[in-house]
Design brief:
The structure holds two protein chains of two kinds. Chain A contains three helices and no strands. Chain A is mostly helical. In chain B, a hairpin with a 2-residue loop joins strand 2 and strand 3. The model of chain B has no long low-confidence stretch (mean pLDDT 85). The chains are: A mainly alpha, B mainly alpha.
Amino acid sequence: MTSLSSFLAKWTTTVIVLAALAASAGLIVHGDIAHTLNTAALVSLGALPMLRVIALAVSWARAGDRRYSAAAVMLMSLMAVGVLLVAVWR
Amino acid sequence: MADVARDVLIIALAFTTSTVGSLGGLGGAILLVPLLTFGDMTIAEAAPLGLVSVIAGSVAAGRTQLRDGAVNHRFAVVTELGATAGVIVGVVLAGSISDRVLTYFLATLALLAAGGGAIRKGVRWKPDASLGADSIGEHHGSLSGVYRLNDQPVPYQPTRMGLGVSLMTIAGVVTGLAGVGGGFLKTPLSSEVMRLPAKVAAATSTFTIGLTASTALLLMAIDGRVVVSDSALVVIGSLVGGTLGSRLQRYLSPPVVRRATALVLTVIAVVLVVRA
């Protein structure tokens, strides 16, 4: 396993454990605390794929793989444009 | 008591669809959303839960797939550029084609993809005994890589990238128009058109559908359509299901993965036609 894959796997595992704990705790408690825990689980999971692309872009740029680093930056930019466009279109 | 039964049912459905979805890199939303609407939910309420299921299943499967070196991130980024551009065009054009026509078109594509995967025999890429375990992973500055099959390193090189990315863009337009995830099109395109190994195609598609679903969920959150209490139930079921699906994928041979994927694609086609 490459160091980047190892780094990404480690962070993914950490987020999965934290999200699972937060979502499970959110089932047990009630009210605002449950809402906060459930939201934390959702936000941490939802942000992870995008953070993974950012980590890839940085890692590839550092390794001198500029072509694919630029492709990753273009992808994030395209997604941001898409979100803005659709949000405005509605 | 009824609330507890409802919660358990949502967790069980999310678990089952995420297991199946991460096994073949298809995502589980296209199965979970119709199943949830058989209860008291509308499609508008079930759709964000479908996205949460895809994200949680994708992240959970990602852990095992990263450790196995099965994800080709460079391939994912390049093909996702086309797919994302297509999705944006599709979302903007949404409503210009009848839902019924679109649904039948999607069902036909799913059946064609199922047929393509089921008909092909054997394994395209062969193990290379000269490669060591440290060679597993993707290559610097290239779309090629090496993946592990029965503990043996297998080198691969995607081909027909121009055609593949063009078809990914069209798949993006179709999925954007229909408002569905594109996993059931992306995996067959990657393996049958661009000739990625079935396991690498499934793992790479699992990553990209998580990325697309995150973006779509953000838009739904802006619209205030995300119910966090139900989403947390889906998170629990899909994290376990995604982990199980990716572990099963590790132990199954490529032809079995392809046949299982073909079976799920056929079920998806039937679900689409029934919903139409």
